[in-house]
Each structure stands twice: as structure tokens, then as C-alpha cells.
User: Fold this.
Amino acid sequence: MTYDKYTCIRKFLLALILCLVALPVSRFISPRAVVDVSTLFLVWLPLSIMLAIIFLFGRHGIIPLVISFAVLNESIFHLPHTEAAVLLFCQLFPVLAVCAIVRRRLGARWRHGMPNRDIAVRVVWMGFVAPGGIKVSMYIAAAWFNYPISISDFFGSGTIIFSIIDIQSLICAALIFTMIIYYPLRMIINLCKGIYLASRNR
Assistant:
């Protein structure tokens, strides 16, 4: 029991540190373009980070993601508490719900064997349904809450071409960049494990 407790704590702290570092960096390096005098992401890399963290840590990565996205949103947007909570819900809930569905379909080892098996299920649900769920939830939220002009275009008030590119940025992040980010993060985790085990054996 003690071993399991400390293992969960270590996973939580490692996931939290990775999220707090990787999410701001990924947002900063995400390619951007100007469409109709509004800046949008061509690839929203924080989604890739989110999926990679879930693949690596499973349920242990959920709370670190919630904390890290809340901190990132607050540092950038400074929204009222209600709007901030709704934005956080729109960013995270569709992805977590899709991961739960995929786990139910593929079993407890759904995070293993990537990308060698069950490609169709992963591509459809995580590459298309999750990004679509994010945008649909944001469009629904826009009907009930008022967001600043600087981000209102992401909630459906932009032009059609803006909305199309915005959705494509999420699909590209989920389909193309998740595994590109997954393996470097996995190498960092293995390095941390090696350092920890070496320090215990001294």
C-alpha cells in the first residue's frame, strides 16, 4: 500500500512538472497565421501534449493536465472564474471522454502497442472526434457566455475560413504531432526513472 501511494505521488509530480513546462512551450512554438485580421494556430500543439501525457500516465495525468491548463489559461487570458472554468471544460472534457471510450473499446491496455495496432479506432476517435468535440463544446459555450474579442473567434464568431483552419489545427495536432511529442517525453520519463533508481541504489 505504501509503495503504491508513493508511486502515485511520483507519477503525479512528474506529470505535473512535464505539463507545467511542456504546455507553455508548445503553445509558444505552435505555428500561427493571420486570417481576416485575426491570428490563429495552424497546429495547436497543447492538444498533442495533452494526448501524449494521457498516453504516458493514464489517469495519473488527468489532474496535472487540469492544473496546468488552468494555470496557462489564467496567465494568458485572465478570464472571470465562470468563463475560465467553462474554457477549461471545453479543452479537456472532450479529450478525456474520448479516451474513456477508447479504453472501453480496447481494454485496460489501450495505451500500449501504439502505433502498431488498433490504428483505425485511435485515428477516428482521437484524431477526429476529440478535436470535433472541443470545437462543438466551445461553440455551445459561446451561446451562453461572453468571451473577450481576442479569443471570441475561436468560439465560432470568426469567418468560415477561420473556423475551418481552426478545426484543422486541432486535427493536425492530434493526428500528426501527438506521437512526435510522445516519444521525446517518454525518453525524458525513462531518464528520470534511471536517475531515481540510481540514486536509490547508492
Remarks:
- The longest helix spans residues 160-200.
- The chain has a mean pLDDT of 90.
- The chain has one domain: 2-200.
- The longest strand covers residues 32-35.
